[in-house]
Amino acid sequence: MAKIEFSEWGSDFTEVESAFVSAFSCHSSTTVADCGCGRTYFTSCPTGGDFDEGELEELQANREKEPDLYFETNVYDSIEIVAIGGEEYIPQCKCGFLRPYIQFMEIKKEQLAMFLIERFRQSIGDKERQIKRERYLLSGVERAKETYGKERDEERK
Ligand SMILES: [Zn+2]
What we know:
Layout: H1 15-24, E1 32-34, E2 40-43, H2 55-65, E3 70-73, E4 82-84, E5 87-89, H3 99-107, H4 109-156
Parallel strand pairs: 2-3
Antiparallel strand pairs: 1-2, 4-5
The structure holds zinc ion.
């Protein structure tokens, strides 16, 4: 089995993580985010977003007290979040919650491509069947209109 490399908090995403995050990120740029495991991540990057009055100082004080629960970066201006099963996770979190998903997608990428092609084919098939059905119904309506129109014209004579 191919070995998948994962990055640590504060370092750049690996190639596979980067692809995963660009596809599944919530794209909500935020300065503070909680991972589903309970850890809190925040950025004090000068180009990042704003904090409420005293919020950053409080987070930094918490980081001092509980360095395994609070993580700070001053390099990235926002925290990436991926939501799975109604919960949000930080891709580089120590809990590694997202790693099996990333690993699965990386190892099964050819199968996933085949799966997506088949799903799109099915979806196009459904739409074609729906269009055919609607055309059939429409032609029925037009025939009825024509027949009814002729009968009405004859009654008027
Ligand atoms: Zn976590």
